[in-house]
Amino acid sequence: MASCRSSGLLTNETKTVVSGKSKLVSVHGSNDTNGALTANIYDNVAGSGKVIARLHIPAGTSIEFDMHGVLCSLGITAVVPNHLDITVEFA
To answer: How deeply is 22 buried, as exposed, middle or buried, from its count of CB atoms within 10 A (0-12, 13-18, 19+)?
Structure first.
């Protein structure tokens, strides 16, 4: 069985999770505010360029997004707003 790695907890930041070719396995998000929040995941080593996932998480929810091993050529970067917690699992 193949395994994957995790970004660890991300909140209120732009973080390059991994550089180079990789697979986006899943993203877990938790929003404990009174309003919906959105995080973007890019196939890049910066918070710009090709968006591979836009995660809109309703208020008061925790959600897992199964990304089915989306192939990323340049890397994986997450742009996460304040008060939203996510982890990015990748291989």
So the answer is: buried
Structure tokens at 61: 């929810």
Strand order in the sheet with 22-31: 5-6, 84-90, 22-31, 61-72
Give the C-alpha separation, 4 to 80, whole Å.
21
Classified as helix, coil or strand, 22 is strand
Give the domain extent around 37. 11-90
Query: How many folded domains does the chain comprise?
Result: 1
30-74 per-position pLDDT tens digit: 999 999 999 999 999 999 999 999 999 999 999 999 999 999 999
Residue 38 lies in a domain: yes
3-state secondary structure of 52: strand
